[in-house]
Write a structure and sequence with these properties.
- By secondary structure, the protein is an alpha/beta fold.
- The protein has two domains: about 140 residues, Rossmann fold, CATH 3.40.50.300; about 60 residues, Guanylate Kinase phosphate binding domain, CATH 3.30.63.
- Helices cover about 45% and strands about 20% of the residues.
- The protein contains eight helices and nine strands.
- The chain has a five-stranded parallel beta sheet, with helices on both faces. A four-stranded mixed beta sheet has the order 4-3-6-5.
- Helix 1 crosses helix 7 and helix 5 runs antiparallel to helix 6.
- The longest helix is centred in the C-terminal third of the chain and has 16 residues.
- The chain is globular, with a radius of gyration of 18 Å.
- Its EC number is 2.7.4.8.
Length: about 200
């Protein structure tokens, strides 16, 4: 039976390994695509249009905003970034699951626009382990690390608003649990209305 794809929104504090988990999930599951954002930033060497980003002018981006063509958007370092509705909607209609890695604020905003989306919150085994992971990057100074940990504690207050909680103490286990979430969601009667109606006729 043909089903619409799932919009899966993944959040979690910096350092929980969201990117690593998403990358492995995409590699292991054929029917999943990573959401491609639109940006006014210039392409970097090696970046591919439609794969890394949709590269647009500021005028085009503002036009998308005016036409409500973005699920969410933000401005960072003088460049606009946003998630095009058309890309997400076309994937979902084709039966492809879309993964969107985004902040808590963005996730809750998307839940209002797409009530059927699946919110997954990834957590570390402990805040001590989170600190160790961030420090092991060796890319940030002490005050930035402290700010990230403070932000993590704040983000954890919103976990109850999510549909699923996934512990990332092992990337393989975290990916397996997210795959279980996707499989379980596809078995919900609310996602199989057309099929159920065909049985009743």
């Amino acid at each position: 039976m043909q089903q619409r794809g799932l919009l899966v929104v993944i959040s979690g504090p910096s350092g929980t390994g969201k990117g690593t988990v998403c990358k492995k999930l995409l590699a292991e599951r054929d029917n999943v695509r990573y959401s491609v954002s639109a940006t006014t930033r210039k392409p970097r060497e090696g970046e591919v249009e439609g794969q890394n980003y949709f590269f647009v002018s500021e005028g085009q981006f503002l036009d998308m905003l005016e036409k409500d063509a973005l699920i969410e958007w933000d401005k960072y370092c003088d460049n606009y970034y946003g998630t095009p509705k058309a890309f997400v909607d076309s994937c979902i209609e084709a039966g492809t699951d879309v993964i969107l890695e985004i902040t808590v604020e963005g996730a809750l905003e998307i839940k209002q626009k797409y009530p059927e989306c699946v919110l997954v919150f990834i957590v570390p085994p402990s805040l001590e382990e989170l600190r160790r992971r961030i420090e092991s990057r060796a890319t940030e100074c002490w005050d930035v690390i402290e700010k990230r940990l403070e932000q993590a504690a704040n983000e954890l207050k919103y976990v109850a608003k999510y549909d699923y909680l996934v512990l990332n103490d092992s990337v393989d286990d975290a990916v397996l649990n997210i795959e279980k979430v996707l499989d379980a969601e596809r078995l919900k009667p609310s996602r199989n209305i057309e099929f159920l109606n065909s049985l009743i006729k």
